[in-house]
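Case study B.
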Amino acid sequence: GAVVSQHPSRVICKSGTSVKIECRSLDFQATTMFWYRQFPKKSLMLMATSNEGSKATYEQGVEKDKFLINHASLTLSTLTVTSAHPEDSSFYICSARDQTEKAFFGQGTRLTVV
Amino acid sequence: GENVEQHPSTLSVQEGDSAVIKCTYSDSASNYFPWYKQELGKRPQLIIDIRSNVGEKKDQRIAVTLNKTAKHFSLHITETQPEDSAVYFCAPCGPLTSGTYKYIFGTGTRLKVLA
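Model:
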């Protein structure tokens, strides 16, 4: 399958700071990327859908000013958690959709806000 | 919005037995139906998928069946092995009016294969 790389895999930041997470499709062009949040032993909750060159579409209840998404190229999308607080601590994971409709996932980022 | 449920939420089977997980969705526009396997701390891995014009697809010990009329599809694993133990998610996908797509994950099923 196609390869999606996400960085960093783990990050610890202080409360009030911002954190940027990158998601790259390495061997295919992804017109659409998705950002999910996963709580322990829970399902993946879709946060937003990111299309190259346009504004992201956020799911209901997800603050767009809190979770800034940029999809500047066909191979890169970024999620910035702004003014992070301990309740933002979670596992964030991206996926990229290829031309055959299959979606492949990055390895995820475990964010801890202290 | 799309409502996606899986049953059962947990499933324990003896090694060698079969396991079946059912996914029920609400959006009739869904036309692509994948199953993902997620091991603890790892990324979800696509294990099998089916499109709306097909009723069944098989890949070695894994199969998926689709009933589009009833809006459900199922994952079948035969001759289960301990390494099949993981959490399995369905993620039906359909086009949005904007032309984009959205994959909504099911509630998940924790499969435990007992040796």
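Chain A has no helices and eleven strands. The remaining cases will be described in the next quarterly update.
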